């Protein structure tokens, strides 16, 4: 046995002992080992042996030990019910050359020909204390741990905030490529407020837009310069998407009061499956993608993973492209037992429509597109490079640092009608927006774990910093007219040359924060405090005017949760946010808007199950909203206020190995509570009172499976005056898939449909109307191993 192998086993043994001690001192969260009747309904799919054994240990409640190298590289045929734990383990180990033996402390996995390995230092997996990671693959639809709410791997059941997690399996089953579509079944989330606009994700949480202000990747801000340079993220590159409801400025600084959407990248993992896939569908959809990786050394200390996507497609409006070319390599290096480094990189090119609006004739939205296929486009080229570093000094102190650099270039060109139509011929003009942006985001924190009497603390102290430097040119110019009855979408159009804006901008954001998570018997308490600073400088190259603004704010967060043995966890929390505003009034630069939320809720995770049910009540207030100055019609004052209060219900469950479910219902009662614009007491525009969704996926024993879902969006007002209204609508999604076996094990054939009935719906805001996305059909053939 090598010295490295011995050291690795000793380290694993020590870690296992720590886990066992922690489990013994903590209140039990899972039931005792399952009875034989319950084992008969337990299914585990074929796959990586280590993953299968860990899953069985968690779900059956047993303690299971094995040496990591003993199971390395092996696959399990899976489990489809068993009359006893021994029978289940034998089925999971069939064909691996390994056996299970019961000892005084649980079960141990041994090599068939070498029972002496019973004495080797094993890795212990305990069904009662299995700690997951907030960035590792989550099997099925239900994730037990989240990192977004606390920046530590904290069980969702023990977090006094409302969190929803969309796992990679949910994304794959519904075959979505946009983050916006991936979160469509999440409680409290409304998407598509501007219809089909593929330039950026349209995600509103609890009545507030989050796209521009709360766009995060791996816990780091993705900067936005106020125009169209927005970093795009393909859903296929993500391990999960976490939606944190309500203000979160204590840990993340300037942010929407509605919450944040944190995209978590896929990264190297021994638990991850390799995959290649090809797709074809309507709207000329053609796509190929792969996700492959593995270990680069014998001990598995250096892991590699690479994701690639190539898509050539359109949307149901034929002229709108949906093209992507992407490569995302990552590498993880376990430098020592106490030190780990993960490097994440991505390069992406994409092209879509620059202005997806159709022509509106009065109150009627037509099918006529006023653009030109050669000229109209949104082209973006972006790349990012970053790392996640962690070093444990000892059992008390751990240093973590995340950093990412990014660069993005954007060309946005489109043709706009000038309002003149003569004998069916529309006059147009050209618009161009040309941007580039460099950005840096970082977060450095010290995690301290210690006890003061009976209080167990996880203290987080940190500093985050983001910087972005961008430039933009906004221009217009002449364009040829178009015959609406016989449109020619391939006319020569010159690049706009008349500059309307030419700006450089530099923004720096930083904050120091402190958060303490406290365990006291069954209580889970949290307290957070933060101080933020933001500095912005704008240079107007057209008129020679420069501007500078500086803002600062202090925000707080409190939370309390009680954990019952039954799996019930009532909680209450208070949180604050702030968001800087651009522009000025007679008093100078606008002050940041401020958000405050009170929330109470109840979470329930049935012991031993893979399910989470959440109910939450919230009262969310946004202050410092701009409104008309009653004494000066040319000025605004920041005395406006908007309130959202409501109820959210959500259930996410792996009901069995074959049946998965997500369900949600949201009721929001929004109100403009303070305003000088004559709309006080009205609903804010584009905030539905009701949202509901349900998705079920079921697989028959012989490999054939079905998925079906429905999404309901209530009616909304098109302006704050509440004089126009868009009707409610329901969209249906479906899938059929077949998993092959035998010599074709790992192959899946699937057909997915979004908006199955091709429902035509529109949404209007401030006099402009937008059409929703039509039916999408995608067939796919994939192979996993």
Automatic annotation (TrEMBL):
Keyword Transmembrane found: yes
Protein name, entry field: TonB-dependent receptor
Alphabetic keyword roster: Cell outer membrane, Ion transport, Iron, Iron transport, Membrane, Receptor, Signal, TonB box, Transmembrane, Transmembrane beta strand, Transport
Organism: Pseudomonas abyssi
Primary localisation category: membrane
Annotated signal peptide: 1-31
Membrane topology: Multi-pass membrane protein
SUPFAM superfamilies: Porins
